[in-house]
Amino acid sequence: MQDLFSKFMENAVRFEQDSRTIRVKYKLCVDKMDGIELHTVMEAMDVAGILDYSLAKAADLIIKHAITPAVSYGSPAMFAEDVNQGSEGISETVLKILPSQDCKIVDVDGDAIYARVIQVIKFIFKHICFENGSWIRSFGRLTWPRISDIIISKFLSKVVPEDASKLVDFQKIVKCTSEFEFSLKEMMFISASDGKDYRLSSFSENVEVHFAFRKKTEILGKARNSLLQCDFSLPQDYTSKGPLLKNDGMAINSSNQVDLIFSSERCVVSKAASQLMELVHQTLQDVCLSSARVALEFYHAVRDAILLYEAVIPVKLERQLDGINQVAILMYNDCLFLSQEILGLAFEYRTDFPDSIKEHAVFADMAPRFHLMAEEILQRQIRIVIFNLREAIDGADGFQNTHQMQQFESAKFSMDQAVFILEKVHIIWEPLLRPSTYKRSMCMVLESVFSRITKDILLLDDLAAEETLQLQRLIHMMLDNLSSLLKSLISAFDSNAKSEEDTSRPIDDLIPSLRKIRKLGELLDMPLKSITSAWESGELMSCGFTILELKDFIRAIFADSTLRKECIWRIENVSLY
Protein backbone atom coordinates (compact mmCIF):
# COMPACT_ATOMS: atom_id res chain seq x y z
CA MET A 1 0.00 0.00 0.00
CA GLN A 2 2.82 2.39 0.89
CA ASP A 3 4.52 1.77 -2.44
CA LEU A 4 1.29 2.35 -4.32
CA PHE A 5 0.59 5.68 -2.63
CA SER A 6 4.22 6.70 -3.15
CA LYS A 7 3.73 6.12 -6.88
CA PHE A 8 0.59 8.27 -6.80
CA MET A 9 2.53 11.13 -5.17
CA GLU A 10 5.39 10.78 -7.64
CA ASN A 11 2.80 11.07 -10.41
CA ALA A 12 1.18 14.02 -8.69
CA VAL A 13 4.22 16.20 -7.88
CA ARG A 14 6.98 16.45 -10.48
CA PHE A 15 9.90 18.73 -11.23
CA GLU A 16 10.66 19.52 -14.87
CA GLN A 17 14.32 20.41 -15.23
CA ASP A 18 14.09 22.05 -18.67
CA SER A 19 11.40 24.51 -17.71
CA ARG A 20 12.44 24.66 -14.01
CA THR A 21 8.86 24.04 -12.99
CA ILE A 22 7.18 22.15 -10.16
CA ARG A 23 3.99 20.67 -11.58
CA VAL A 24 1.10 19.40 -9.42
CA LYS A 25 -1.48 17.19 -11.19
CA TYR A 26 -4.95 16.60 -9.79
CA LYS A 27 -5.99 13.62 -11.97
CA LEU A 28 -3.60 10.71 -11.38
CA CYS A 29 -2.91 7.51 -13.28
CA VAL A 30 -0.92 4.64 -11.72
CA ASP A 31 -0.89 0.93 -12.66
CA LYS A 32 -3.92 1.25 -15.04
CA MET A 33 -5.86 3.12 -12.35
CA ASP A 34 -6.84 6.28 -14.17
CA GLY A 35 -8.58 9.45 -13.06
CA ILE A 36 -7.83 9.12 -9.35
CA GLU A 37 -8.17 12.50 -7.60
CA LEU A 38 -5.15 13.82 -5.70
CA HIS A 39 -7.47 14.91 -2.89
CA THR A 40 -8.78 11.34 -2.66
CA VAL A 41 -5.24 9.99 -2.46
CA MET A 42 -4.38 12.46 0.33
CA GLU A 43 -7.47 11.42 2.29
CA ALA A 44 -6.64 7.73 1.90
CA MET A 45 -3.05 8.22 3.02
CA ASP A 46 -4.25 10.18 6.04
CA VAL A 47 -6.69 7.44 7.03
CA ALA A 48 -4.00 4.76 6.54
CA GLY A 49 -1.58 6.75 8.69
CA ILE A 50 1.13 6.86 6.01
CA LEU A 51 0.94 10.51 5.05
CA ASP A 52 4.52 11.28 6.21
CA TYR A 53 5.98 8.29 4.36
CA SER A 54 4.17 9.02 1.09
CA LEU A 55 4.94 12.75 1.11
CA ALA A 56 8.71 12.24 1.66
CA LYS A 57 9.77 12.36 -2.00
CA ALA A 58 7.54 15.34 -2.75
CA ALA A 59 9.05 17.09 0.26
CA ASP A 60 12.61 16.38 -0.94
CA LEU A 61 11.75 17.69 -4.39
CA ILE A 62 10.28 20.96 -3.11
CA ILE A 63 13.13 21.59 -0.65
CA LYS A 64 15.76 20.98 -3.31
CA HIS A 65 14.22 22.89 -6.20
CA ALA A 66 12.18 25.61 -4.50
CA ILE A 67 13.15 26.30 -0.87
CA THR A 68 16.92 26.23 -1.36
CA PRO A 69 16.88 28.68 -4.33
CA ALA A 70 14.46 30.91 -2.41
CA VAL A 71 16.91 31.27 0.47
CA SER A 72 20.08 31.74 -1.61
CA TYR A 73 21.62 34.87 -0.12
CA GLY A 74 22.70 37.36 -2.81
CA SER A 75 21.20 35.60 -5.89
CA PRO A 76 17.72 34.35 -4.93
CA ALA A 77 15.17 32.75 -7.24
CA MET A 78 11.75 34.25 -7.95
CA PHE A 79 8.46 32.32 -8.31
CA ALA A 80 5.37 32.52 -10.46
CA GLU A 81 2.22 30.41 -10.06
CA ASP A 82 -0.04 29.28 -12.84
CA VAL A 83 -3.29 27.29 -12.79
CA ASN A 84 -4.45 25.17 -15.75
CA GLN A 85 -8.23 25.15 -15.86
CA GLY A 86 -9.94 22.37 -17.83
CA SER A 87 -13.59 21.60 -18.66
CA GLU A 88 -13.85 19.57 -15.47
CA GLY A 89 -12.14 22.12 -13.28
CA ILE A 90 -8.47 22.62 -12.33
CA SER A 91 -6.33 19.94 -13.90
CA GLU A 92 -2.94 21.09 -12.61
CA THR A 93 -1.03 23.93 -11.02
CA VAL A 94 2.58 24.91 -11.62
CA LEU A 95 5.20 26.82 -9.67
CA LYS A 96 7.74 28.32 -12.03
CA ILE A 97 11.22 28.96 -10.59
CA LEU A 98 12.66 32.06 -12.26
CA PRO A 99 16.16 33.51 -11.98
CA SER A 100 16.44 36.84 -10.18
CA GLN A 101 16.31 39.94 -12.38
CA ASP A 102 19.08 41.55 -10.35
CA CYS A 103 22.13 39.39 -9.63
CA LYS A 104 23.28 41.89 -6.98
CA ILE A 105 20.27 41.56 -4.67
CA VAL A 106 21.28 41.43 -1.04
CA ASP A 107 18.35 40.80 1.30
CA VAL A 108 19.96 42.06 4.45
CA ASP A 109 16.61 42.70 6.13
CA GLY A 110 15.33 39.21 5.40
CA ASP A 111 11.84 40.34 4.33
CA ALA A 112 12.23 39.29 0.69
CA ILE A 113 13.77 35.91 1.55
CA TYR A 114 11.02 35.08 4.01
CA ALA A 115 8.37 36.28 1.52
CA ARG A 116 9.66 33.83 -1.10
CA VAL A 117 9.65 30.94 1.37
CA ILE A 118 6.11 31.84 2.43
CA GLN A 119 5.09 31.89 -1.23
CA VAL A 120 6.36 28.32 -1.69
CA ILE A 121 4.70 27.07 1.51
CA LYS A 122 1.39 28.73 0.57
CA PHE A 123 1.59 26.94 -2.76
CA ILE A 124 1.99 23.63 -0.89
CA PHE A 125 -0.78 24.54 1.58
CA LYS A 126 -3.27 25.41 -1.16
CA HIS A 127 -2.46 23.06 -4.02
CA ILE A 128 -1.04 19.93 -2.39
CA CYS A 129 -2.58 19.97 1.09
CA PHE A 130 -5.85 21.59 -0.04
CA GLU A 131 -5.75 24.00 2.94
CA ASN A 132 -6.17 21.07 5.31
CA GLY A 133 -4.52 21.96 8.63
CA SER A 134 -3.68 18.36 9.52
CA TRP A 135 -2.06 17.68 6.17
CA ILE A 136 0.04 20.86 6.11
CA ARG A 137 1.11 20.14 9.67
CA SER A 138 2.28 16.71 8.54
CA PHE A 139 4.16 18.31 5.66
CA GLY A 140 5.69 20.81 8.09
CA ARG A 141 6.90 18.12 10.48
CA LEU A 142 8.51 16.42 7.51
CA THR A 143 10.26 19.48 6.07
CA TRP A 144 10.67 22.22 8.71
CA PRO A 145 13.85 20.89 10.40
CA ARG A 146 15.62 20.89 7.04
CA ILE A 147 14.12 24.19 5.88
CA SER A 148 15.13 25.94 9.09
CA ASP A 149 18.67 24.53 8.77
CA ILE A 150 18.88 25.90 5.23
CA ILE A 151 17.67 29.35 6.32
CA ILE A 152 20.19 29.44 9.16
CA SER A 153 23.15 28.24 7.09
CA LYS A 154 22.40 30.22 3.89
CA PHE A 155 21.00 33.40 5.38
CA LEU A 156 20.99 34.05 9.13
CA SER A 157 24.54 32.85 9.82
CA LYS A 158 25.81 35.02 6.95
CA VAL A 159 24.33 38.24 8.31
CA VAL A 160 25.56 37.87 11.89
CA PRO A 161 27.33 41.20 12.60
CA GLU A 162 31.11 41.25 12.32
CA ASP A 163 31.38 44.13 14.75
CA ALA A 164 29.77 44.49 18.17
CA SER A 165 28.56 47.99 17.24
CA LYS A 166 26.29 46.51 14.53
CA LEU A 167 24.44 44.15 16.87
CA VAL A 168 21.65 46.73 17.25
CA ASP A 169 20.98 46.74 13.47
CA PHE A 170 20.47 43.00 13.59
CA GLN A 171 17.25 43.55 15.54
CA LYS A 172 15.48 44.10 12.20
CA ILE A 173 16.37 40.53 11.28
CA VAL A 174 15.10 39.34 14.66
CA LYS A 175 11.76 41.12 14.08
CA CYS A 176 11.10 39.81 10.57
CA THR A 177 12.20 36.30 11.61
CA SER A 178 9.61 36.31 14.39
CA GLU A 179 6.93 37.52 11.96
CA PHE A 180 7.90 34.78 9.48
CA GLU A 181 7.47 32.05 12.07
CA PHE A 182 4.15 33.58 13.16
CA SER A 183 2.90 33.29 9.55
CA LEU A 184 3.95 29.63 9.45
CA LYS A 185 2.15 29.03 12.74
CA GLU A 186 -1.05 30.57 11.34
CA MET A 187 -0.89 28.15 8.41
CA MET A 188 -0.23 25.37 10.94
CA PHE A 189 3.00 24.56 9.08
CA ILE A 190 4.77 24.67 12.45
CA SER A 191 3.41 23.92 15.89
CA ALA A 192 1.95 26.68 18.04
CA SER A 193 3.13 25.00 21.23
CA ASP A 194 6.37 23.14 20.42
CA GLY A 195 9.27 25.47 21.18
CA LYS A 196 11.60 23.36 19.05
CA ASP A 197 9.83 24.64 15.93
CA TYR A 198 10.98 28.21 16.68
CA ARG A 199 14.60 27.52 15.79
CA LEU A 200 15.01 30.65 13.65
CA SER A 201 13.87 33.00 16.40
CA SER A 202 16.07 31.16 18.87
CA PHE A 203 19.06 31.62 16.56
CA SER A 204 18.42 35.29 15.78
CA GLU A 205 17.62 36.22 19.39
CA ASN A 206 20.88 34.62 20.49
CA VAL A 207 22.88 36.54 17.91
CA GLU A 208 25.35 37.71 20.55
CA VAL A 209 26.39 34.12 21.03
CA HIS A 210 26.61 33.56 17.27
CA PHE A 211 28.56 36.78 16.85
CA ALA A 212 30.96 35.67 19.56
CA PHE A 213 31.22 32.20 18.03
CA ARG A 214 32.06 33.67 14.62
CA LYS A 215 34.67 35.97 16.13
CA LYS A 216 36.10 33.06 18.11
CA THR A 217 36.38 31.07 14.88
CA GLU A 218 38.12 34.03 13.21
CA ILE A 219 40.53 34.44 16.12
CA LEU A 220 41.47 30.76 16.11
CA GLY A 221 41.77 30.84 12.31
CA LYS A 222 44.15 33.80 12.46
CA ALA A 223 46.18 32.13 15.19
CA ARG A 224 46.42 28.84 13.31
CA ASN A 225 47.35 30.52 10.01
CA SER A 226 50.03 32.60 11.70
CA LEU A 227 51.54 29.52 13.35
CA LEU A 228 51.43 27.44 10.17
CA GLN A 229 52.88 30.17 7.93
CA CYS A 230 55.79 31.14 10.18
CA ASP A 231 59.05 29.59 8.94
CA PHE A 232 61.10 30.55 12.04
CA SER A 233 63.67 32.31 9.88
CA LEU A 234 65.82 35.32 10.80
CA PRO A 235 67.66 37.91 8.67
CA GLN A 236 70.91 36.55 7.20
CA ASP A 237 72.97 39.18 9.02
CA TYR A 238 71.47 38.21 12.38
CA THR A 239 74.76 36.94 13.88
CA SER A 240 76.49 36.91 17.22
CA LYS A 241 78.36 40.06 16.18
CA GLY A 242 75.19 41.94 15.31
CA PRO A 243 73.50 44.85 17.11
CA LEU A 244 71.63 42.51 19.44
CA LEU A 245 74.52 42.64 21.89
CA LYS A 246 74.80 46.42 22.05
CA ASN A 247 74.29 47.97 25.46
CA ASP A 248 71.55 50.28 24.18
CA GLY A 249 69.43 47.24 23.36
CA MET A 250 68.92 48.13 19.70
CA ALA A 251 68.56 45.23 17.31
CA ILE A 252 68.65 44.54 13.60
CA ASN A 253 65.09 43.31 13.75
CA SER A 254 63.67 44.80 16.91
CA SER A 255 60.21 43.35 16.23
CA ASN A 256 61.66 39.91 16.98
CA GLN A 257 63.18 40.99 20.28
CA VAL A 258 60.92 41.14 23.32
CA ASP A 259 61.12 42.07 26.97
CA LEU A 260 60.35 39.33 29.45
CA ILE A 261 57.82 40.50 32.02
CA PHE A 262 59.41 38.79 35.02
CA SER A 263 63.04 39.25 33.98
CA SER A 264 65.43 42.12 33.31
CA GLU A 265 66.59 40.36 30.16
CA ARG A 266 65.37 40.30 26.57
CA CYS A 267 65.24 37.48 24.04
CA VAL A 268 64.42 36.91 20.39
CA VAL A 269 61.15 35.16 19.56
CA SER A 270 59.58 33.98 16.33
CA LYS A 271 57.04 36.01 14.41
CA ALA A 272 54.53 33.28 15.28
CA ALA A 273 54.84 33.94 19.02
CA SER A 274 54.82 37.73 18.76
CA GLN A 275 51.78 37.74 16.44
CA LEU A 276 49.99 35.25 18.67
CA MET A 277 50.41 37.48 21.72
CA GLU A 278 49.34 40.56 19.72
CA LEU A 279 46.14 38.70 18.85
CA VAL A 280 45.69 37.65 22.48
CA HIS A 281 46.04 41.23 23.75
CA GLN A 282 43.65 42.58 21.09
CA THR A 283 41.05 39.97 22.04
CA LEU A 284 41.38 40.60 25.76
CA GLN A 285 40.85 44.31 25.13
CA ASP A 286 37.58 43.33 23.40
CA VAL A 287 36.69 41.17 26.41
CA CYS A 288 36.85 44.26 28.61
CA LEU A 289 34.37 46.09 26.33
CA SER A 290 31.94 43.24 25.64
CA SER A 291 28.79 41.88 27.23
CA ALA A 292 29.08 38.92 29.56
CA ARG A 293 28.17 36.27 26.96
CA VAL A 294 30.48 37.66 24.27
CA ALA A 295 33.29 38.19 26.78
CA LEU A 296 33.09 34.58 27.89
CA GLU A 297 33.46 33.32 24.30
CA PHE A 298 36.39 35.68 23.71
CA TYR A 299 38.04 34.48 26.91
CA HIS A 300 37.81 30.86 25.75
CA ALA A 301 39.10 31.93 22.32
CA VAL A 302 42.19 33.41 23.97
CA ARG A 303 42.91 30.21 25.89
CA ASP A 304 42.37 28.05 22.80
CA ALA A 305 44.55 30.32 20.65
CA ILE A 306 47.45 30.11 23.12
CA LEU A 307 47.15 26.34 23.33
CA LEU A 308 47.27 26.13 19.52
CA TYR A 309 51.00 26.90 19.75
CA GLU A 310 51.49 23.75 21.79
CA ALA A 311 49.35 21.73 19.36
CA VAL A 312 50.76 23.05 16.05
CA ILE A 313 54.41 24.11 16.39
CA PRO A 314 56.02 20.99 17.96
CA VAL A 315 54.43 18.81 15.26
CA LYS A 316 55.36 21.22 12.47
CA LEU A 317 58.99 21.53 13.61
CA GLU A 318 59.61 17.98 14.84
CA ARG A 319 62.36 17.28 12.29
CA GLN A 320 64.20 20.55 12.95
CA LEU A 321 64.21 19.84 16.67
CA ASP A 322 66.46 16.84 16.05
CA GLY A 323 69.32 18.99 14.74
CA ILE A 324 71.50 21.89 15.87
CA ASN A 325 69.72 24.94 14.50
CA GLN A 326 68.07 28.26 15.35
CA VAL A 327 64.57 26.79 15.09
CA ALA A 328 64.90 24.89 18.37
CA ILE A 329 66.29 27.97 20.15
CA LEU A 330 63.54 30.22 18.81
CA MET A 331 60.97 27.70 19.96
CA TYR A 332 62.57 27.63 23.41
CA ASN A 333 62.40 31.43 23.55
CA ASP A 334 58.79 31.37 22.33
CA CYS A 335 57.73 29.03 25.12
CA LEU A 336 59.60 31.06 27.74
CA PHE A 337 58.06 34.28 26.42
CA LEU A 338 54.55 32.78 26.32
CA SER A 339 54.84 31.38 29.83
CA GLN A 340 55.71 34.82 31.24
CA GLU A 341 53.16 36.67 29.13
CA ILE A 342 50.43 34.25 30.24
CA LEU A 343 51.25 34.89 33.90
CA GLY A 344 50.87 38.62 33.32
CA LEU A 345 47.49 38.51 31.54
CA ALA A 346 45.33 38.32 34.65
CA PHE A 347 47.21 41.19 36.32
CA GLU A 348 46.82 43.34 33.21
CA TYR A 349 43.17 42.73 32.34
CA ARG A 350 41.21 41.09 35.16
CA THR A 351 40.07 44.34 36.82
CA ASP A 352 38.43 45.49 33.55
CA PHE A 353 36.68 42.19 32.79
CA PRO A 354 32.87 41.98 33.09
CA ASP A 355 31.98 41.02 36.66
CA SER A 356 30.44 37.72 35.57
CA ILE A 357 33.76 36.29 34.36
CA LYS A 358 36.24 37.92 36.71
CA GLU A 359 36.20 34.91 39.03
CA HIS A 360 36.27 32.37 36.21
CA ALA A 361 38.98 33.87 34.01
CA VAL A 362 42.17 31.93 34.69
CA PHE A 363 45.40 31.94 32.69
CA ALA A 364 48.07 30.97 35.20
CA ASP A 365 47.30 27.28 34.80
CA MET A 366 48.71 27.39 31.24
CA ALA A 367 52.02 29.02 32.12
CA PRO A 368 53.76 26.00 33.72
CA ARG A 369 53.17 23.80 30.66
CA PHE A 370 54.93 26.34 28.42
CA HIS A 371 57.76 26.78 30.92
CA LEU A 372 58.16 23.00 31.05
CA MET A 373 58.05 22.79 27.26
CA ALA A 374 60.76 25.45 27.05
CA GLU A 375 63.08 23.54 29.38
CA GLU A 376 62.43 20.26 27.56
CA ILE A 377 63.33 21.87 24.22
CA LEU A 378 66.51 23.43 25.61
CA GLN A 379 67.63 20.25 27.35
CA ARG A 380 66.94 18.26 24.20
CA GLN A 381 69.08 20.70 22.20
CA ILE A 382 71.90 20.46 24.76
CA ARG A 383 71.74 16.65 24.64
CA ILE A 384 71.96 16.73 20.83
CA VAL A 385 74.99 19.05 20.95
CA ILE A 386 76.74 16.89 23.55
CA PHE A 387 75.98 13.74 21.55
CA ASN A 388 77.53 15.28 18.41
CA LEU A 389 80.57 16.40 20.39
CA ARG A 390 81.07 12.93 21.85
CA GLU A 391 80.86 11.40 18.40
CA ALA A 392 83.51 13.84 17.17
CA ILE A 393 85.84 13.07 20.11
CA ASP A 394 85.30 9.33 19.66
CA GLY A 395 87.19 9.71 16.37
CA ALA A 396 90.36 10.55 18.33
CA ASP A 397 90.50 6.91 19.51
CA GLY A 398 91.32 7.91 23.08
CA PHE A 399 94.26 10.12 21.91
CA GLN A 400 96.53 7.08 21.75
CA ASN A 401 99.89 7.16 19.93
CA THR A 402 99.72 10.81 18.94
CA HIS A 403 103.50 10.76 18.40
CA GLN A 404 102.67 8.89 15.17
CA MET A 405 101.71 11.31 12.40
CA GLN A 406 98.60 9.43 11.27
CA GLN A 407 97.25 9.14 14.82
CA PHE A 408 98.04 12.79 15.52
CA GLU A 409 96.20 13.95 12.39
CA SER A 410 93.22 11.78 13.30
CA ALA A 411 93.12 13.23 16.81
CA LYS A 412 93.55 16.77 15.45
CA PHE A 413 90.67 16.23 13.00
CA SER A 414 88.45 15.08 15.85
CA MET A 415 89.36 18.12 17.93
CA ASP A 416 88.70 20.41 14.94
CA GLN A 417 85.30 18.79 14.47
CA ALA A 418 84.46 19.42 18.11
CA VAL A 419 85.58 23.05 17.80
CA PHE A 420 83.48 23.44 14.63
CA ILE A 421 80.38 22.14 16.43
CA LEU A 422 81.02 24.43 19.37
CA GLU A 423 81.45 27.47 17.12
CA LYS A 424 78.25 26.59 15.27
CA VAL A 425 76.43 26.43 18.57
CA HIS A 426 78.06 29.71 19.62
CA ILE A 427 76.87 31.46 16.44
CA ILE A 428 73.31 30.20 16.86
CA TRP A 429 72.88 30.50 20.61
CA GLU A 430 74.55 33.77 21.57
CA PRO A 431 72.37 36.23 19.59
CA LEU A 432 69.12 34.41 20.38
CA LEU A 433 69.25 33.23 23.98
CA ARG A 434 69.06 35.36 27.09
CA PRO A 435 72.61 35.99 28.38
CA SER A 436 71.97 33.94 31.52
CA THR A 437 70.58 31.00 29.53
CA TYR A 438 73.38 31.20 26.98
CA LYS A 439 75.98 31.18 29.77
CA ARG A 440 74.38 28.30 31.63
CA SER A 441 73.85 26.15 28.54
CA MET A 442 77.22 26.78 26.92
CA CYS A 443 79.04 26.10 30.19
CA MET A 444 77.23 22.77 30.41
CA VAL A 445 78.29 21.85 26.87
CA LEU A 446 81.91 22.93 27.36
CA GLU A 447 82.09 21.04 30.63
CA SER A 448 81.12 17.84 28.82
CA VAL A 449 83.79 18.39 26.14
CA PHE A 450 86.68 19.34 28.39
CA SER A 451 85.93 16.65 30.96
CA ARG A 452 85.75 13.99 28.25
CA ILE A 453 89.07 15.00 26.65
CA THR A 454 90.77 15.28 30.04
CA LYS A 455 89.46 11.88 31.08
CA ASP A 456 90.65 10.22 27.84
CA ILE A 457 94.16 11.67 28.16
CA LEU A 458 94.48 10.74 31.84
CA LEU A 459 93.54 7.14 30.99
CA LEU A 460 96.62 6.74 28.75
CA ASP A 461 99.03 4.37 30.49
CA ASP A 462 102.34 4.71 28.63
CA LEU A 463 103.32 8.02 27.04
CA ALA A 464 106.48 8.73 25.09
CA ALA A 465 108.10 12.15 25.45
CA GLU A 466 107.07 13.13 21.92
CA GLU A 467 103.56 11.95 22.67
CA THR A 468 103.20 14.29 25.66
CA LEU A 469 104.26 17.24 23.54
CA GLN A 470 101.74 16.38 20.82
CA LEU A 471 98.95 16.03 23.39
CA GLN A 472 99.94 19.38 24.83
CA ARG A 473 99.87 20.87 21.33
CA LEU A 474 96.36 19.51 20.72
CA ILE A 475 95.07 21.01 23.97
CA HIS A 476 96.61 24.40 23.25
CA MET A 477 95.27 24.48 19.68
CA MET A 478 91.76 23.63 20.87
CA LEU A 479 91.77 26.31 23.57
CA ASP A 480 93.15 28.90 21.15
CA ASN A 481 90.43 28.07 18.62
CA LEU A 482 87.79 28.44 21.34
CA SER A 483 89.09 31.79 22.60
CA SER A 484 86.27 33.83 20.98
CA LEU A 485 83.68 31.48 22.43
CA LEU A 486 85.18 31.76 25.91
CA LYS A 487 85.27 35.56 25.57
CA SER A 488 81.56 35.50 24.65
CA LEU A 489 80.85 33.81 27.98
CA ILE A 490 82.69 36.56 29.83
CA SER A 491 80.55 39.09 27.92
CA ALA A 492 77.46 37.16 28.92
CA PHE A 493 78.53 37.37 32.55
CA ASP A 494 79.00 41.12 32.28
CA SER A 495 75.68 41.76 30.51
CA ASN A 496 73.86 39.63 33.04
CA ALA A 497 75.41 41.28 36.07
CA LYS A 498 72.01 42.16 37.53
CA SER A 499 70.62 38.66 37.25
CA GLU A 500 69.98 36.45 40.22
CA GLU A 501 72.94 34.23 39.28
CA ASP A 502 76.40 34.83 40.72
CA THR A 503 78.27 36.37 37.80
CA SER A 504 81.29 37.43 39.83
CA ARG A 505 82.66 33.88 39.78
CA PRO A 506 85.55 33.28 37.36
CA ILE A 507 84.79 31.35 34.22
CA ASP A 508 86.91 28.45 35.50
CA ASP A 509 84.53 28.02 38.42
CA LEU A 510 81.56 27.72 36.07
CA ILE A 511 83.40 25.25 33.83
CA PRO A 512 85.47 23.21 36.34
CA SER A 513 87.05 21.02 33.67
CA LEU A 514 88.41 24.11 31.85
CA ARG A 515 90.86 24.78 34.70
CA LYS A 516 91.69 21.09 34.78
CA ILE A 517 92.42 20.75 31.04
CA ARG A 518 94.54 23.91 31.09
CA LYS A 519 96.56 22.54 33.98
CA LEU A 520 96.82 19.17 32.21
CA GLY A 521 98.38 20.99 29.29
CA GLU A 522 101.00 22.37 31.66
CA LEU A 523 101.61 19.02 33.41
CA LEU A 524 102.43 17.28 30.11
CA ASP A 525 105.88 18.94 29.99
CA MET A 526 106.36 19.71 33.69
CA PRO A 527 109.21 18.07 35.68
CA LEU A 528 108.24 15.39 38.19
CA LYS A 529 109.33 17.41 41.22
CA SER A 530 107.29 20.40 40.05
CA ILE A 531 104.24 18.17 39.65
CA THR A 532 104.76 16.84 43.18
CA SER A 533 105.13 20.37 44.59
CA ALA A 534 101.95 21.46 42.79
CA TRP A 535 100.07 18.63 44.50
CA GLU A 536 101.57 19.41 47.88
CA SER A 537 100.55 23.05 47.55
CA GLY A 538 96.96 22.01 46.83
CA GLU A 539 97.00 23.61 43.38
CA LEU A 540 96.24 20.38 41.48
CA MET A 541 93.44 19.38 43.80
CA SER A 542 91.86 22.82 43.29
CA CYS A 543 91.98 22.12 39.57
CA GLY A 544 89.97 18.92 40.07
CA PHE A 545 92.68 16.25 39.97
CA THR A 546 92.35 13.24 42.25
CA ILE A 547 95.27 11.43 43.89
CA LEU A 548 94.60 8.31 41.79
CA GLU A 549 94.57 10.30 38.53
CA LEU A 550 97.84 12.02 39.41
CA LYS A 551 99.63 8.78 40.39
CA ASP A 552 98.53 7.08 37.15
CA PHE A 553 99.58 10.13 35.14
CA ILE A 554 103.08 10.11 36.70
CA ARG A 555 103.47 6.39 36.05
CA ALA A 556 102.39 6.89 32.40
CA ILE A 557 104.93 9.66 31.73
CA PHE A 558 107.92 8.92 33.94
CA ALA A 559 109.91 5.69 33.99
CA ASP A 560 110.16 3.67 37.19
CA SER A 561 112.88 5.16 39.39
CA THR A 562 113.76 6.02 42.97
CA LEU A 563 112.66 9.62 42.31
CA ARG A 564 109.26 8.50 40.96
CA LYS A 565 108.72 6.26 44.01
CA GLU A 566 109.68 9.08 46.34
CA CYS A 567 107.38 11.56 44.62
CA ILE A 568 104.45 9.12 44.65
CA TRP A 569 105.12 8.49 48.38
CA ARG A 570 105.07 12.23 49.04
CA ILE A 571 101.81 12.59 47.10
CA GLU A 572 100.22 9.75 49.04
CA ASN A 573 101.30 11.09 52.41
CA VAL A 574 100.81 14.82 52.04
CA SER A 575 98.14 16.41 54.24
CA LEU A 576 95.94 18.85 52.36
CA TYR A 577 93.68 21.26 54.15
UniProtKB/TrEMBL annotation:
Residues 262-390 form the Centromere/kinetochore protein zw10 C-terminal domain. Residues 414-571 form the ZW10 C-terminal helical domain. Residues 6-225 form the Centromere/kinetochore protein zw10 middle domain. InterPro entries: Zw10/DSL1_C_sf (IPR046362), ZW10_C (IPR048343), ZW10_C_2 (IPR055148), Zw10_middle (IPR048344). It comes from the Eukaryota. Transmembrane segments: none annotated. This is Centromere/kinetochore protein zw10 homolog. It comes from Gossypium mustelinum.
